[in-house]
Amino acid sequence: MLTLFTESFFWMVINVTALFFFLCTILFSYSRLVYVDVDNDIAVSSYDELYSCGVKTVPLDNGSTRTWIFLVDTENCRIPNVDPFDTSIKHLLNLHSKPYRCDDRKLVTYIQGNTLYLNQTKQSKHLSFCRFKAIYRNGNTFEFGEESQAFNRSIEIKDEFIKVMCYNFSRSVMVENYHLHFIMKYPKTKESIYNSKQSNDIKNNTTINHLIKTGKTLNVLSNQNGRFEIKDHLNVLLVMIDSTSRINSLRYLPKTRKYLIDTLEATEMLGYNKLADNTMVNMVPFLTGDYYENQPCLKSKHGVDNCSFIWQNYSQSGYLTHFGEDWPRIGTFHYSLKGFKRQPTDYDDRPFHLANEKGSRLMMETCFHGRSSSETLYWRIYDLAYNLRNKHYFSLSILSRMSHDFLEGVKNLDNLSLNTLKKLYENNLLNKTFLAFFGDHGMRIGKVRMTFIGQLEERLPMMFIYIPEWFKTKYSSLFNNLITNSRQLTTHF
Ligand SMILES: *[C@@H]1O[C@H](CO)[C@@H](O)[C@H](O)[C@H]1NC(C)=O
Ligand SMILES: *[C@@H]1O[C@H](CO)[C@@H](O)[C@H](O)[C@H]1NC(C)=O
Ligand SMILES: *[C@@H]1O[C@H](CO)[C@@H](O)[C@H](O)[C@H]1NC(C)=O
Ligand SMILES: *[C@@H]1O[C@H](CO)[C@@H](O)[C@H](O)[C@H]1NC(C)=O
Ligand SMILES: *[C@@H]1O[C@H](CO)[C@@H](O)[C@H](O)[C@H]1NC(C)=O
Ligand SMILES: *[C@@H]1O[C@H](CO)[C@@H](O)[C@H](O)[C@H]1NC(C)=O
Ligand SMILES: *[C@@H]1O[C@H](CO)[C@@H](O)[C@H](O)[C@H]1NC(C)=O
Ligand SMILES: *[C@@H]1O[C@H](CO)[C@@H](O)[C@H](O)[C@H]1NC(C)=O
Ligand SMILES: *[C@@H]1O[C@H](CO)[C@@H](O)[C@H](O)[C@H]1NC(C)=O
Ligand SMILES: *[C@@H]1O[C@H](CO)[C@@H](O)[C@H](O)[C@H]1NC(C)=O
């Protein structure tokens, strides 16, 4: 991620451009879209002006005197700015889908601090008492602990994940609730950023500081044992919305986009391109800095534990780390790989989500025991950001359930995303935080893929980068690089 700030990124862009030149020539140049084979890239049947790919290009900034026909307009790559509602695609869009609703009548318990309460206003007269069980990690799956003593009003909890069972007067289970509970953990390494002698040396190394100020951090950022030589250690908060392109976010995430752009003044990476087909092969480069194909450790039948993930580097620098995915059965490292034998991060939500969704029959279920898994994950993000506000953390959340299968699904995340970002910002929890709100790729399935815009958006995930205002001023040259890169072809690494 940090490469997005550096000048070295330009060099990378040039290399990557060579690789993607092929893709670009197919996709972005001289194609009057005539027919499309779903399994192949767009077939070019005749040469024409770039503008007439069968779709109109639109100005990016409405009201601005400068109209952008191209989002990216560089020597080797041009990405047209298309209308997300273009007539070539509009009939394939579901613009009036009903929002999902979770029946929360059975959500009768809640956690505050270290106490689990029975919500008195919701309590049915048939409810006699409740008990809970801890949920533990057991390799790639989970197990339950012992059943707690019974309680009627509240009970103290020490576990991170719990399942609550409430019984009626003939001792039958009436409801099951599942909760995540914040537990303070401590960085694994003693050599953390708080006390490292080396990082002090780096802090007052005027040479390095000068380089950072002038943006000439080419080598400086990557040497010194992989530590970041920026004085201010930002938290890293990554929110990935599966299968969400920039183009689709224009259709279905209008409120979140408006907030990111107008209030948070986040930078949108307009030429952000995926590297390979699905989630795993795109998230691997994002998290490891190399393609899936180049990493035998990922193919081990024992799991992916031996690979080196970026959160480990943060962990070595004293950060607490979090990884959460709301659809664990198709988890990034579990769907086609063997998962993690050991817990990968300090906070790892997998056992919770597995237990929570167990027994749901529908693949496409969105609600579990009174709450959508997306709501739960957003709740978790806020809870961690709040409780770790005086620490350093790296958090990666992957929301798949709502957005994976239908273009309009992500509409269900607009209110949730907006409300979470708003709450984080208004409670001053983003002042020390680097936030990326992004997709891994666009929609890979369905009829839209048969259109030019559909193929374009499949390859161009959404990517918003928020950095605190003071950081932009203090490291203005890095920020300027980011702005420049926002209109270049960029990728997950
Ligand atoms: C763009 O601006 C024009 C003229 O001001 C206005 O009519 C139109 O509704 C605007 N479109 C959007 C998408 O805001
Ligand atoms: C989002 O919130 C608005 C207003 O609060 C509401 O009208 C709308 O139905 C909500 N959308 C969804 C998908 O929940
Ligand atoms: C308790 O239930 C009431 C009624 O549904 C609800 O309005 C309230 O938010 C709940 N309280 C908590 C803390 O969840
Ligand atoms: C809960 O309340 C019911 C009725 O008031 C009572 O019969 C039961 O013993 C109580 N259970 C516990 C664990 O306090
Ligand atoms: C408790 O629930 C079971 C299963 O739903 C039901 O058969 C039983 O009648 C209930 N008992 C009482 C006292 O409500
Ligand atoms: C470097 O910084 C540390 C802590 O900020 C300070 O204690 C130390 O005196 C500084 N060293 C030099 C050479 O400025
Ligand atoms: C400061 O960092 C530069 C670049 O890594 C290094 O060459 C130089 O020796 C360092 N100076 C001090 C005083 O540590
Ligand atoms: C992260 O740590 C690994 C192993 O120590 C190292 O090989 C890699 O270069 C580091 N990555 C970054 C971006 O610092
Ligand atoms: C990791 O590497 C060690 C040493 O090479 C090996 O024994 C172990 O089986 C590997 N673990 C996995 C999960 O591949
Ligand atoms: C955000 O942090 C900066 C730098 O630490 C500080 O100057 C600023 O006052 C903070 N802003 C708020 C709103 O806390």
Automatic annotation (TrEMBL):
Matches recorded under Pfam families: DUF229
Gene Ontology terms: cellular component: extracellular space
Per the UniProt record, which residue ranges are transmembrane? 9-30
**Claim: Transmembrane helix is one of the keywords in the record:** yes
Source organism superkingdom: Eukaryota
**Keyword field contains Transmembrane:** yes
This protein's UniProt keywords: Membrane, Transmembrane, Transmembrane helix
* Protein name as it appears in the record: Uncharacterized protein
